[in-house]
Amino acid sequence: MGLSDALADKDKKSRIISDCATLIDEEVASKGFTALPLKAGYKAIKGIKPGFIPHVIESLLPEMATKVDPIWDEGVSTGNPVKFFQDNRGRVADALLSVTDAKSKNAKNAIVRSTYESLRGTAKKHVEEAIPRLSKVIEKYA
Q1: Where are the domains of the chain?
Q2: Which letter, b or e, does each residue of 84-108 get, where b requires 16 or more Cβ atoms within 10 Å of its Cβ?
Q3: Which Pfam families match (predicted)?
Q4: pTM to 2 decimal places
């Protein structure tokens, strides 16, 4: 079972969204001084309206799950999907960013679009750093 299957369960889906929002908050908070633009951008996005981050996560998750499930399944076949995910963090990051890249081009909110564009250059590095936590979230529900 992958993330897509887990999202079909409404109770699991709401917990996955909450865990992903916490993961993002913790990842951004853990960044040092060099990540000030990321922290400022995240603060601007969070400030758009209450609950905006969980709303965005909910809208992105189905497509993201479709992109990462094959990688997770490869890991299941090795016997350790968490380690496989972490060892292939570049592939996972590329899969996730392919979704956000496509969505950002059509974003109606100018703050979202401009913030994403300004941070995209360092996004892969930050996403790769979050893969260990993300793999634990997927393991919890898959």
Answers
A1: 3-141
A2: bbbebbebbbbbbbebbeebbeebe
A3: DUF6918
A4: 0.91
